[in-house]
Amino acid sequence: MNMERILDVIRAPLVTEKTARLQENNQYVFKVAPDASKPEVKTAIEQLFEVKVESVNLLNVKGKVKTFHSRKGRRSSMRKAYVRLAEGQSIDTLARA
């Protein structure tokens, strides 16, 4: 996989309170491309961060409808990847974000 496709597949790490708790169990969460597959995400993470990935779960998140000053709008939808690393492996997501 070339570097251009890797950077297209892995958009950004998601850093929230929930994902911080998941990192204690060797799970990390990333925004990924809408057309990314599990093998692509696994290969991209392994090549980008030089770690061993055990499993990948993908989740489509639909954008919420919100109102702002009586105008309706919609947040954009995204695809998330929950990545479980092998025991003893870790990623410093704040350094690469």
Brief summary:
With 97 residues, the chain is an alpha+beta fold. The chain is built from 4 helices and 6 strands, in the order αβαβαββββα. It is globular, with a radius of gyration of 15 Å.
Describe the structure.
This protein is an alpha+beta fold and 97 residues long. It has a single domain, classed as RRM (RNA recognition motif) domain (Alpha-Beta Plaits), CATH 3.30.70.330. Helices cover 31% and strands 36% of the residues. It is built from 4 helices and 6 strands. The strands form 2 sheets. It has a 4-stranded antiparallel β-sheet with strand order 1-2-6-3. Strand 4 and strand 5 form a beta hairpin. Helix 1 crosses helix 3. The longest helix is centred in the middle third of the chain and has 12 residues. 15% of the residues are buried.
Structural descriptors:
97 residues; alpha+beta; Alpha-Beta Plaits; 4-stranded antiparallel sheet; two-stranded antiparallel ribbon; 4 helices; 31% helix
Topology:
Elements: H1 3-9, E1 10-13, H2 17-23, E2 27-32, H3 38-49, E3 53-61, E4 65-68, E5 71-74, E6 78-85, H4 93-96
Antiparallel strand pairs: 1-2, 2-6, 3-6, 4-5
Helix pairs in contact: 1-3
